[in-house]
Amino acid sequence: METVHYDSIIIGAGPAGLTAGVYLARAKAKTLILDSGVAGGQMILTHEIANYPGIESISGYALSNNMRNQAKKFGCDMLSGVSITQIDFESEIKSLSLSNGKSFSADTIILATGGRSRTLGVPGEANFKGRGISYCATCDGDFFQDKEIAVVGGGNTALEEAVSLTKYASKVTLIHQFDHFQGFKHAEDEARSNEKIHINLNSRIVSFNGEDKLTSITVENLLTHEQYDIGLDGVFIFIGYEANTDFLQGRCIHLNERQEIVTDNKLQTNVPGVFAAGDALAKRFRQITTAVSDGTIAALNAMEYINQKKQKEAAHQ
Amino acid sequence: MVLPTPLKHVETADHLNKIISENENVMVCCGRMGPMCIPVYGIMEELQEEYKHVDFRDMLFDSPEAHIIRNLPECSSFMGLPFTVYYKNGKVVAATSSIQNRDQITSILDKEFGK
Ligand SMILES: Cc1cc2nc3c(=O)[nH]c(=O)nc-3n(C[C@H](O)[C@H](O)[C@H](O)COP(=O)(O)OP(=O)(O)OC[C@H]3O[C@@H](n4cnc5c(N)ncnc54)[C@H](O)[C@@H]3O)c2cc1C
Q1: Which fold, A133-237?
Q2: Which of A7, A140, A233, A279 does the annotation list as catalytic?
């Protein structure tokens, strides 16, 4: 099958990738955006966005559609639901192939693959998703009216969602692997003072049990290694986010110990012509505004790289 | 009461009965405009081109008419939105609870309805 060449291929159509696409396509660079899911990234998981400057309040769905349409309007090609099976980013002309057999090459790559909710990776977790295990309190909380549930995690999200789930559940067991919480003091105080919340520190779930739906969990006390079962109807898991860089692991791109992409201040990785933007970067703050900013910087530097490459090629001819 | 998505909607229980009696292959995603549901609507929107032999629909979970999905025996153990139900010749052939990715959805579509 024929390989189609682009000036730039952006991997990931969240706010970072879509912004990079807007800047590159506006600068007349031939640009392709690839996404393994649907355009919008984590914005689609957000009910209401109230901190995007210039827009008082907007749903994540609407902002995603606006950004996608804007990138398309400026001329970006876009493919969603794709799976990248092969990459070669080290050569001067970068290339990649998809599971559907299509292959593409480009002068520059922008990695904008963002992040995802961390899962526990414990036996039974995949089976009971939607049958007792949930990652979204606002979506599924009302299925647990007067039921006993557990919340896993020790950061602000886990603490806040444990409190919000007491609106529905009769009892919430908060399970955290460390001996202290990582969230803000006020969030911890609110959870600790709620009568419906029972706290199990130094503990982890070792299995999810049940037939058709979740009926119990097996918990290990990490100090004594004693294991015991808790009968319940639901478990909500809020244990943070991880970078979507699995497809880069063991390859040429430098990742840190948390598997986040390391770049210089031009947002270029250790491989010339390969840039990165958004939540997949090794950085402290992860917001739509920061992703949009990274997308802009990566695109402008990629554009400079493309122009310099074209000038060099012209000088050689 | 319908969801604000670009998909075709199911408005009432009678409407769903009509759709599944007139179409061989039907996929209905019953949910809200929430983070677990929206990605599924997005994937369905994109699959419409590829799976022209399937009628893709959504339905508002909070509509009283959604009892037709909520009370299906196939959904009795479900505790996560959206409830997605696949009908072939008027019969439920598969049902899933909570968010599903594109590969999970297409594997059901391919198995139950063919490519
Ligand atoms: C529930 C929730 C609420 C939030 N609320 C807010 C808020 O109110 N305000 C705010 O500013 N921020 C909020 N955030 C954070 C914000 O959504 C993120 O910081 C932002 O979306 C990051 O953008 P991104 O483009 O870097 O990555 P993402 O949004 O994660 O997008 C990455 C894209 O890359 C795709 N991808 C991943 N791997 C691959 C691959 N291998 N191949 C191809 N494509 C791939 C994914 O499918 C995804 O579409 C929220 C996040 C969550 C989860």
Answers
A1: FAD/NAD(P)-binding domain (3.50.50)
A2: A140
Question: Which residues of chain A form CATH 3.50.50.60?
Answer: 3-117+241-316, 133-237
**Is CATH 3.40.50.720 correct for B8-110?**
no
Place of tokens 């409190």: A163
**Looking at residue A81, what is its pLDDT?**
81
Which superfamily is assigned to A3-117+241-316 in CATH?
Answer: FAD/NAD(P)-binding domain (3.50.50.60)
8 Å CB contact of A139 and B32: yes
Beta-ladder partners of B91: B88
Other beta carbons less than 10 A from residue A75's beta carbon: 15
- Output phi, psi for A58, to 5 deg: -155, 150
Looking at residue A14, its pLDDT comes to: 97
Query: Given this model, what pLDDT does residue B1 score?
Result: 84
* Pocket mutation for ligand 1, best pick of A34, A38, A42 (most atoms within 8 Å of C-beta): A42
For A247-262, how does the pLDDT look when each residue is reduced to its tens digit (9 = 90+)?
A: 999 899 999 999 999 9
CB B12 within 8 A of CB B27: no
Domain residue spans of chain B: 8-110
CB distance from A27 to chain B under 8 Å? Answer: no
* SS3 per-residue string spanning A220-231: EECCCCCEEEEE
Q: Dump pLDDT digits (tens) for A152-198.
A: 999 999 999 999 999 999 999 999 999 999 999 999 999 999 999 99
With CB atoms and an 8 Å threshold, state whether B80 touches A134: yes
Q: Is A140 a catalytic residue?
A: yes
Q: What is the ipTM of this complex?
A: 0.78
**In chain A, which ranges are E strands?**
3-11, 31-35, 77-80, 84-88, 94-98, 103-111, 115-117, 133-134, 148-152, 171-175, 197-200, 203-210, 214-221, 227-231, 234-237, 241-243, 274-276
Best probe residue, ligand 1, of A89, A97, A113, A117 (max atoms within 8 Å of C-beta): A113
